[in-house]
Amino acid sequence: MMGTLAASLAGKRIRTTEELYRADVEGDIENVDGVLKITTIRVEYHLKVKADQKEAAREAFSSYLTQCPAAQSVIGCIKLQDKLELEEVA
Q1: What is the CATH number that goes with domain 2-88?
Q2: CA-CA distance, 51 to 87, in Å (whole number)?
Q3: I need a labelling partner for 66 at 20 to 30 A (CA). Which of 3, 29, 41, 59 fits?
């Protein structure tokens, strides 16, 4: 998912180098009818951008999941929650 979003951001000329872009990921594993199952994955992206890139970053974020092979493989089986935190840099 992180790679697909990075590709989408790159298409909008937004850099995603290590010092500008990261993700915090956590999930829930539950006992479902006696079987341990991943039920939720939460991803919080952190991106540092210039002020004039914020809207383009939000646009990329709003549509990247439809192009993401990993997300499309698990949607319907695992609840995905994603969030984008933008930090303005000079």
Answers
A1: 3.30.300.20
A2: 9
A3: 29
Buried b / exposed e along 29-48 (16+ C-beta atoms within 10 A): eeeeeeeeeeeebebebebb
Q: What is the pLDDT of residue 15?
A: 97
Please state the domain extents for the chain: 2-88
> Burial level of 54, CB count in 10 A (0-12/13-18/19+)?
middle
Q: Distance between CA 86 and CA 73 in Å, rounded?
A: 27
Mention every residue, 6+ apart, whose C-beta is less than 8 A from residue 66. Answer: 72
Residue 87's pLDDT band, with cuts at 50, 70 and 90, is very high
Question: Can you tell me whether residue 79 is helix, strand or coil?
Answer: strand
pTM: 0.91
